[in-house]
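Q: A reviewer asked whether we had any structural model of the full assembly, not just the individual parts. We don't, so I'm hoping you can provide one. Inputs are below.
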Amino acid sequence: MQKSEAAYTKTLKQPISTGIPGLDDILCGGIPPGGVVILEGEPGTGKTTIGMQFLVEGAIKHNEPGIYITFEELPEQIYDDMERFGWNLKDLERRNLLRVICIEPEILLEQMLEPNGLFEYMIKEIGCKRVVMDSISLFRLMSSEQEARTNVYTIRNIMRKHALTSFFIREYSEVEGMHIPFENYICDGIVRLSLKPLMEKYRKRTIEVLKMRGTRILEGEHTYKFVEDGVYIIPSLSMAEDKILVQETEVLSTGIHSLDELLMGGIPKGSVFMIDTNSKANYRYLLSSIYAQRIKDDDCTVTMMSGNTTLDMFADTIDLFGVSLRQAVDEGKAHFIEHYKRAVDSGLEKALIRVDDVENDEYANTLNDKLSPIFECEELCDKRWFIYYDLNTIISERGKEFVVKYFSEEISLWRALGITVMAHCNFSEIGTETASFLERTCNGVIRTWVDGNYQYLQVTKSPSGRVSAPHIVANISETPFVRLV
Amino acid sequence: MVAESDVITLQMECTLFFENNPYALETSTGMSKRLGRNANLIERALNRLTELSILEKNGQGTRAIYRYKTPYIQTEVDMNAYD
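A: Here is a predicted structure for the entire assembly that you could use as a starting point for your response.
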C-alpha cells in the first residue's frame, strides 16, 4: 500500500547519512529517508563514484543494502573502476549488501510496474534501502518529454513506496541548464557536480545542493576531491576545528537562537570570543542578549563598561530582556569595571571596580587584586564566570600597545580559570597588525557590519572550524530584538 | 543456416558476459547490443543456456529477461570443518 503524504513527510524528518565525507555536513545530517535526489554533472565529475560511495558506505557502515542500476555502463567496468577506492563490490554482492544491475530502461520500468516483478524480488532479496539509477537521462531519449515525465514520476513513486533513498544520476551540461528540466519538480533534491576554472591553468571540482526537501542545507559551492577511499568534500567556509574546545560539551547560549545555530549550539565554555563591529553597526541588542542570557543561566559576570554606555543605561537595556541588573548585583552575580568618573545609581555602586585613576603599569595588579577575592568567594567559586570586555574602551584609555600586552596575559589567566570571555572591538580602527593579533588570540570571531541598507553578521572564526555565510541582522519586536536571516 | 559451432561460440560469449556481470538482467535484444551480435542467434544461445540451467528466463518472446542462475560459486572450502 502506498504511504500517505503525511506518513511520507514524517519519514522525511529522519535524515540518513550518505557516508560521503562533507556531504552530510552540507545536508545538515543527510538525505531524508525515501528521498529521491538527482545527482547531475558533466562527464568526468564523479557521478558514478559518488553514487557508488553512497551505496558502499550504506552497506558497510549502516547495514543498508543497495542496488546500483546501470543502463549503459557494464557492471564489470564499474567493479574494476571502483577497485581504486578499495571497494570490493563483488564481495559486497556475495554478502547480499549490494547488487550492480545492468538492464534496459524500458525493461526496468516494465519490471517495476509488475507485481512481484524482478525489481520487487531483488529489493526483497537483499532488504534494499538505497538505490542509484544511472542515468535517468535515458528516459528522455527513449520517449517523448511527456512520456519521460510520466515515467520518472512513476519511478519516483515506486522508490517512495518501498522507502528507497535514491540517487537518480542525470547528465548535465550548461546548454541543458537553459531551461528547467521536469525532474527538478518531481524529485526531492538536486545535487550538482561541476568543473570550474581555478587559477587560470587548473580546474576544481565543486558540489552544490540546489534543493533538498525536508532538511536544511549549507548553500553554495563546495570543493571536492577524489582521494584514496572515494570522494572527499570540503564544505566551504570551514577551517580546522579546535578539538579541545569542541570536545567541551558545555556551550553557552547567546540568547539569539539563530546565532546559537551558527555557533553550533553557542559559545563553548572557557573560550574567548571577539565581536568585531564597524562604527555604523548596532551591536547593543546583540551584546545585551548575550549578557542577559548569562545572568538568566545563573552565571556570574564581570563587565567592562564602555565610554558611551553608563551603568544605568545598561541596566535599563538588560531590563528589556527580563533581567534585573540590580538583583544580579545584590546576589553578587554582576560586577563592573569602570574607566570613567561617572555617577551611578547607589544600588549598583557596590558592584563597581573603579580604575579611572589607575596607571597602566598598575592596572593588571589592581584589577587582579580586586577580582581575585570575587572569583574565589566561597558562594561564587563554583559558578560559571563570564567576562564581557570592551577593548575599544581600553584602547582609547590606555593605548594599543597596552592592549596587545595586557590582553594576551589576561586571556591566558582567564582560560586557565575556565572563564568564558566575550570581547568587543572595532578592528578597522585599530590597524591590521593589532587586529590580526587579537583575532589570533581569540577562539572565535563574530563580525557585524553595515553595508548599504542592511546590517550583516558573520562568524568568521569558531572553535568548531565552521565559518558562517554572512547573515542579515533583522530587527524583531520581541526579545532578543534581533534575528539573523 | 547457422552452424552449430557459431551457436556454441555465442553460448560461451553469453556465459562469459553473465560471469563478469552476474546480476545483469537482459533481453535477447539487450544482449545483442551488449555483445554486438545478431539478436536471433543470441536468443537461440540464451535459450540453450536456459535449458542447461545456467540462465533463468522470465517471460516470453522478445521481452523475456535472462539472468544468471548462480551468480557466485563458493570457491573456498573450510577444510577444518571436515576434521
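A: Points you may want to mention in the reply: Strands of chain B lie at 55-58, 65-68. Residues 31 and 58 of chain B are 15 Å apart (CA to CA).
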